[in-house]
């Protein structure tokens, strides 16, 4: 018994009615990007059909409506993650840009050669490459927290690793392993070393109740498209004092207070970091996605995913002795992304056979090549779950995998 | 003319717009000078303040800059309202005026029921300034109305 | 007689059916952001309803469809501006980000203290602030091309201004004055001084047939939302050799070829400059917007706007002796953005009265404060036209202005 | 099993996948070594090439790395096809193979009618390699099939 009325929920998602290769689609790739409910599509369409205009500068009703809807989206996103103020919520394109914003603005203003940034082996490229760019440009040192044999963060040397660190940049949930990292104690440890804490919450915010204040985080990055919202928008939340002290990142309209020939002054938060026309309608869609999730309740969302993940882990390991799952078995410390290898069959080939069954999973390195190298695999298959997935869909995955097994048997 | 528009442009507002009070400059020092910008429309205002340190009273205030009728009228009414007042009273007035302006703004975005704001308004006599309440129905214009008040607040904060 | 069937066109735009204050909306603010036709809304909705998935990595049909639709959007945008290859077309959030990308990546790799960047007094903040940031950070020198009394680029000192310049960053059409700058001779002059040329084509691409090769430009920036496309997406086009030599800008997924603990290598163009999940559905919507414009024909679009601008300039000056228009009178050298002052009445007040008549114009500094200071005005009103505007709407503007005149008469 | 899937996974492909030819390393130098990456899926391939400078002939080729069946099979078939061929012939084969793969890719995005590509295919005997043509129906997999060919091309270009 799920705590969500999944059949009703499925009815809200037009894309789940899709038929592929003669079969109803089994969408198990929400960790890459989630499908969108009617209410999100309608919210965006409604704006375009009658309340669309550029925001913030128009003294006419449609512009005022668009501005109010856009800023209302911001207020919803801010409140969804427990941000103390919506002024601290900066709209960007995606989580990747959010992290780059921190690296460019805070990083370049604060980090000097030899300064240490700590990341982990389970980071997504979004939380690796910006720091490597800074390492190459500024000579900062990148230190890595390893991953244990049971796919958890290895904290054995945490204190030594944090020694001299200025920033701990860490994921709240691995998109490959599903592992949830307990942020609060990590933040406490980092703060004890005078390091700030950036949380890559891209996989966390969509699935678990998030409270940036309870985390005591300094920067939090996430994207709309993984949480029922549209493509093209994400957010950086950061503490007000940090944002106020940081230099601007992108320059242009909206982020200025005044521009003269010899220089400019910056606007108030959050607009100081939002140059040019923002993703107006996308912010409205994101707000609608949050309304949808809040109506379900994030505790129920989490509960549903924990049950489904348990069911899937059991189903896969019971049926296939040759399956190798890269991630914790304990569902209380993981989300619903299940990465696996199946015999020697390459993830691409698995995925291709699954597609014939309309089962959609991701195959590849999941933008986590450092982790893949630690795991000693070039690619895995990954099935991932969200509010609209069912046990029957897990069963469909098992059936499709059995067929792949037959097809590629040497 | 729609009643909507007359809500915004009350007679007393148009009067202050057409005959602004306290325009001019003061010598700096002894006066202080503070610039304010509205990043949305480009309006600028300069507030000159002369505070008597003995009595902590705003003995003189002068205004420069340009802006729309709402911004001009609000600036003029502000200057008339705080001239001769103590700094404490001026601060109370600023809080009260911003409360008047922002109750609606906050409600719109669903954050506040206005109860904190109501307490800022308590016991403050806004007089003519209440004519500006029509502005809250036109959210973009709120910044026009508050520009000079924010600049005044900044000027008071920056005083030695 | 217009060369466009405007009544049919208007029927394609749901937002134009909107009624404001009891009157049908008269939308004269397309230079800030344009309304969207049904076909654009439908193209985006269709993707979300059945072909949505994250792009580039999925080995299943919906992901392949999403990827093909996204890349197809890129091909359409590239071909619309005459780009030699779609690999040179980088998707960003908006024109502002496009210019910042050049300033951060090309600028920081190539500009040293004392190097000169030339801009003009008629630039939008998007083409000013990124260079001011570089001036503050790197000590480059910013030089300004002035504007003549008849609102054209003042080229009297062009040669001297370009002396020692590394970049000319110039708008193809002013969003305040409407002035069209003749890019090819400017590019030739700049190239003769070994300077590269960046064109802010934000106001040009929506309205006139654009050929980046004929311009001989090096970088071109523009946004979808001003050309019937969605919010949240824009593009940078640049010559392949430049893009290949430039360091990456944002780091993360998609822009890498390989990531190891000690560093990363970059992906092929265009993905090298696209970090993280892109604005997938927005690219599809932009493609549909281009299909719409191409079906009308850009010559017909231009012709319609030239006629309408002529009609408006005449109507305004005939009726109101006290109106002051900031922009050329010759419609062959200008677009359809008409900025004006009306007596001493502030643009905000004008706009407010116009809104009562459902006439939407922009009021303010139009993100061009350096220009406003040159013109000696804090703010103007701006009416701007697009394919769906009519002479009757210009007449409605005149009626509304007459009412503002009465209301504010001292 | 759908016929679609059998289009992709032809018997000869599965054979090369299960028994890949020319696996191993060569001593560098005299051989050259070139690495290739598929940024989408993380597959890597290393191509060792021994070219006789006198005759400009690929006298030996060895392959390392891992990948999916398409990538493995394509790599194996590539190694068999170019071993013993002149560098010129190998380049012709590369062009022909990429033409075979990309006709569909380009059509999809409406840029080319494939006529240039057709000329690349003219007069080249692809033999077994034609079995890989099924891949063009699966656009994402084209990069799997072309990885080793691109790496070979790079290896030939980088030779002294
Ligand atoms: C000339 C010009 N340049 C740049 C921009 C900035 O465009 P965006 O806000 O889409 O980044 C605009 C739009 O306001 C513009 O008119
Ligand atoms: C853990 C994690 N971090 C960052 C990202 C990057 O998100 P985006 O592509 O939306 O920028 C992802 C998504 O792929 C992710 O799973």
What is the structure about, briefly put?
Chain A is α/β, with parallel strands linked by helices and 410 residues long. Chain A is built from 14 helices and 17 strands.
Topology:
The complex is a heterotetramer, with 2 copies of chain A (410 residues) and 2 copies of chain B (160 residues).
Chain A: H1 6-11, E1 19-20, E2 23-24, E3 26-27, H2 38-48, H3 61-80, E4 89-92, H4 95-110, E5 116-120, H5 129-138, E6 141-145, H6 158-162, E7 165-171, H7 183-192, E8 196-200, H8 212-215, E9 219-223, E10 234-238, H9 240-245, E11 256-260, E12 263-266, H10 280-296, H11 298-319, E13 323-326, E14 337-342, H12 347-356, E15 359-360, E16 362-364, H13 369-375, E17 380-384, H14 391-408
Parallel strand pairs in A: 3-15, 5-6, 5-7, 7-8, 8-9
Antiparallel strand pairs in A: 1-2, 4-10, 9-10, 11-12, 13-14, 14-17, 16-17
Helix pairs in contact in A: 2-10, 3-10, 4-5, 11-14, 12-14
Chain B: H1 3-8, H2 11-18, E1 32-37, E2 44-52, E3 57-66, H3 69-82, H4 87-108, H5 115-121, H6 139-158
Antiparallel strand pairs in B: 1-2, 2-3
Helix pairs in contact in B: 2-3, 3-6, 4-5, 4-6
The complex binds pyridoxal-5'-phosphate (PLP) (2 copies).
Gross morphology of chain B:
globular
Largest interface: A-C, 96 and 96 residues
Q: Say how many strands of chain B there are.
A: 3
| CA(first)-CA(last) distance of chain A | 40 Å
Per DSSP, the total helix count of chain A is 14
Please work out how many helical segments of chain B DSSP would assign. 6
Number of strands of chain A: 17
Q: Could you tell me the mean pLDDT of chain A?
A: 96
> What would the CATH topology of chain B be?
Sufe protein. Chain: A
- Taken as a percent bin, the fraction of beta residues of chain A is 15-25%
Question: From the coordinates shown, what is the CATH architecture of the largest domain in chain A?
Answer: 3-Layer(aba) Sandwich
- For this structure, the quaternary state is heterotetramer
Placed side by side, the strands forming the largest sheet of chain A appear as 4-10-9-8-7-5-6
What is the CATH class name of the largest domain in chain A?
Answer: Alpha Beta
Main sheet summary of chain A: 7 strands, mixed
What best-fitting shape of chain A do the alpha-carbon axes yield? globular
Indicate how many domains the architecture of chain B comprises.
1
| CATH level 1 name of chain B | Alpha Beta
Low-confidence stretches of chain B: 103-114
